[in-house]
TrEMBL record:
Its main location: membrane. Gene3D superfamilies: 2-enoyl-CoA Hydratase, Chain A, domain 1, Nucleic acid-binding proteins. GO terms for cellular component: membrane. Pfam families: NfeD, NfeD1b_N, NfeD_membrane. This is Nodulation protein NfeD. SUPFAM superfamilies: ClpP/crotonase (SSF52096), NfeD domain-like (SSF141322). Residues 366-422 form the NfeD-like C-terminal domain. The lineage of its organism: Bacteria, Thermotogati, Synergistota, Synergistia, Synergistales. It is found in: Membrane. Keywords: Membrane, Signal, Transmembrane, Transmembrane helix. The keyword Transcription does not apply.
Amino acid sequence: MSVVCLFLLAATAARAAPLVVLSDLEGVVGTAMEAHLDEVLQEAADREAGLVLLRLDTPGGLVSSMRAMTGRIVNSPVPVVVWVAPSGARAASAGAFLVQSAAVAVMASGTHIGAAHPVGAGGDLAEGDMKKKVANDLAAQMRSLASERGRDAEAAARMVTESLSLTSSEALGAGVVDLVADDVDQLLSAIDGREVRSGGRTVRLNLAGASVEARPLSRRLQILSFLTRPDVAYLLLMAGLYALVFEILTPGGFVMGTSGAVMILMGAYGLRMLPFNWAGIVLLVVGVAVMVLDLLVGGMGILSLFGVAALILGALVTFRGAPGGELLHVSMGVLSGAIAALSLLFALSAFAVWRSLRRKVVSGQEGLVETRAEVKSVLSPEGMVLCRGELWRARSVDGRRIAPGTTVRVVKIEGLLLTVEPVEEEKP
């Protein structure tokens, strides 16, 4: 009996152990991250988890996605902790709003937060009243989130109005985060027993003996997140333009044109999720156009080198940094290598296409022009000739009579009728 009781007590304790759902929010704040947060919060609510722990590292992103995500975090029935981690991570721009919306805001050592001044898709907002209006609206939202969570609202608003950026220790001293923790155990131990507001009610966090379960990004959202990487979006646009150029050079097919259009659409989706500079897009188009021009005019490759330089420069300036001078992460090693490889492949393939277009036709009806034939029945002016082992109706070019056995040359072809002329005897 005692053994059974002990087993039941252990099972009850196991069932009572609180569940902490841990998930990473890494990359640009956009539709993919927004959908992932929805899935995590829904799963945590369905499983009656005690806490959702979001490990954040982002350069910022879309205001629309940020607003939707902060609303879901504030109204979540399960308390949400946003933890800027690991060391070297950041909560820039839209990420700063996510931190302020959390029931508990935590940063790891060596991280930073802030630089939340709004920028447009091309890097800047319109000047004047519209710029001030958007900035004031976001500053008010930041103050609202911070004051709701009992943090310093004015210091938080300065991250919007002055693009203030703070390290973890500075943020803790300024009152915009609640604590600094470097690992999960330290974090859970520090917030155990704390009372927080979540979903319109006060909740006490009971995390003693909590089990932490990771919730990775789904495969579908992994693909969407991959497309929003700056280097991937740029390469998709470049490869799509190359494919469309091939379709123009070799019309009649559909594979290259269709694939090019699909790649451009996927690249455009990535651009929609990122703050970009139109100058970089122009450099991309000009670079491809210059390389095509070099092939068409039969250049020595000098223009192609300028085209590759324009592509690399476009990659450098296409994606604008987050406010405060912090750059979006672009893997220039991967990007430069991919640009060089794609450019070389394009140059070799396009050169082969160019040579084939200039080569004399040697097959089909067009290939019969300039071919020798033998007159089989007198041409006066029409008759029959033997050309490439086949009998053809033919007529003389000037209507004169040509005797059988005469060697003639095909001048042109109209349907199934050849126009020929005698071949002058070559002098020894």
